[in-house]
Amino acid sequence: MITIVAKNSIKQGKTEEFKNLAEKLINESRKEKGNVSYTLYQDANDNNIFTFIEEWENEDVIKSHNASTHFTSIVPKFADLIEKKSEINLYKKIK
Fold this sequence. Notes:
This protein has about 100 residues and is α+β, with helices and mostly antiparallel strands. Helix content is about 30%, strand content about 30%. The chain has one domain: Alpha-Beta Plaits (2-Layer Sandwich), CATH 3.30.70.100.
């Protein structure tokens, strides 16, 4: 299993727009074969920081997800909403 942690710093006044787009991405991604979980979190101390935590069965399903219509149509729209480059890390479960 692979976990993706994608931290996003959203511009002031753009959080609602980000959450609306994120909701569409989450709903479609959860339907994908190989998706274990896909959740968005808002930082408890900074309302402009949102982090996606996703769990996928393997790298092949992640590649498929990244090529999906919903991913390729929604994720580029985040570019106008984020304050700085997103921090994205992939983790492999070891225990």
